[in-house]
Each structure stands twice: as structure tokens, then as C-alpha cells.
Amino acid sequence: MAFSARTAAAAAVALAVAGLGATWYFSQSAADDAFAQCRRGVAPAAGQIGGAFTLVNQDGKTVTDADVITKPSLVYFGYTYCPDVCPLDNARNAEAVTLLDERGYDVQPVFISVDTDRDTPETMREFAAMLHPKMIGLTGSPEQISAASKAYRTYFKVQDPGDPYTLIDHSTQSYLVFPKLGFVEFFNRDTTAEEMTESVACFVDAWKAQQ
């Protein structure tokens, strides 16, 4: 996807309308936040990002968030036909997962497609397998994808519906999600694999300390 200034502006407007941006976060004392030592700023508003979803995995099986988020996960929304942003972001997430594996942290990358017309389970399986053996690829019906996107407060818009070569504008954050607990942090595109590794490791350590 060519993430142009126009696209970025449109996404910013959509996020603002959805009540995102700065409102994702609110001030919270360190004593109330088990992940305070891991955060770059203030804590996320509980329950505002993430939640239940029902999608179709790369094997064609209908799954829920409980089936997918069985370990710390990095969740990303995009599409396989994306010419630049999605492959780079997913590759970065996959590299971070490999670095975490080397340090003894079991984290899985999850790729949710917003392209219901072209991204079949088979397509998602091939794409995920190229990037990392642990990557889970998810697709679904327009209604299922829309519900998952709304749950994570993401933005996407098909530029030319019906065009088999259409591009899709979409937000590009990656979300760190834990089983049962849910969303705890997000990472922007400019976060490196090494930076993500350090941050995720801190969150996983803090999460395990609560078990």
C-alpha cells in the first residue's frame, strides 16, 4: 500500500472520529499499573482496544480470539496484496519474534487481513509461512473483519471496490495482546525489531509475574 500523505491524513481523521489518538491513553499511577516499568508513557485505557472476534484461520477453520490468543501475541491488520507497508511491518514483527525466541520468550505474530475479496485462507497460509513458522494468518467475511477492526479501533478503506488490483488504505500499528488479559501496548511503524523485542520482553516478564 502506498501510504501517502493523503492516506495518512484520512487515517488520522478516521482515528480522531473514532475517539483514538491521544484518547487511547489516560494517566494512571504506577501503583495501579503492573506494566508501568515497561511503558513509554501513560497506561492504556482498559477495555478501549481489543476484544472478542470470530475469524477464519489459514486452514479454513472458524476460530475465536480465545482460540488464537493462547500466548503473548503481536497482532497486525493489513493485506497480502499490499505492495510495501504490510510486508515490511510483518517482517519486522517476525524478526522480533525470532529475537524473542532466542531469549526464551514464546510470542506469536498474528496477521489479520482486511482484504475479504482476495485474501483466502490459502493465500494467508502461504503469506504467513513465508514470514515465520509461528505466524497465524486470519481472514473472514466482511462482517467478521469489520467487527475485528472495530474492536481494535483500526482503520481501513478499499480505494476502488470491485477492482481486482485495488489498494487498501489502513492503519499500521501492531498490538501486543495477552491471553485473557487482552491488549496492553501498541507499536508504531518506526519501532525497530530490536526495540520491539526489548519492550515485549519487559511486558512478558511483568505478565508472568502476575500469574
What would you say this structure looks like, in words?
This protein has a single domain (5-210), classed as 3-Layer(aba) Sandwich (Glutaredoxin). It contains six helices and nine strands. Helix 3 (85-102) crosses helix 6 (193-210). The protein starts with a helix and ends with a helix. Helix content is 35%, strand content 19%. The strands form two sheets. It has a seven-stranded mixed β-sheet. Strands 6-7 form a two-stranded antiparallel sheet. The chain has 211 residues and is of the alpha+beta class.
Strand and helix map with partners:
Layout: H1 5-17, E1 54-57, E2 62-64, H2 65-68, E3 73-78, H3 85-102, E4 108-113, H4 121-131, E5 136-139, H5 142-151, E6 156-158, E7 168-170, E8 174-178, E9 182-187, H6 193-210
Parallel strand pairs: 3-4, 4-5
Antiparallel strand pairs: 1-2, 1-5, 3-8, 6-7, 8-9
Helix pairs in contact: 3-6
In short:
The chain is α+β, with helices and mostly antiparallel strands. Helices cover 35% and strands 19% of the residues. It has helices spanning 5-17, 65-68, 85-102, 121-131, 142-151, 193-210, and strands spanning 54-57, 62-64, 73-78, 108-113, 136-139, 156-158, 168-170, 174-178, 182-187.
Order of helices and strands: HEEHEHEHEHEEEEH
Q: How far from one another are the termini?
A: 40 Å
Determine the structural class based on helices, strands and strand pairing.
alpha+beta
User: Low-confidence stretches at least 5 residues in length (pLDDT < 50)?
Assistant: 1-29
Can you identify the CATH superfamily? Glutaredoxin
What is the top-level CATH class?
A: Alpha Beta
The total beta strand count reads 9
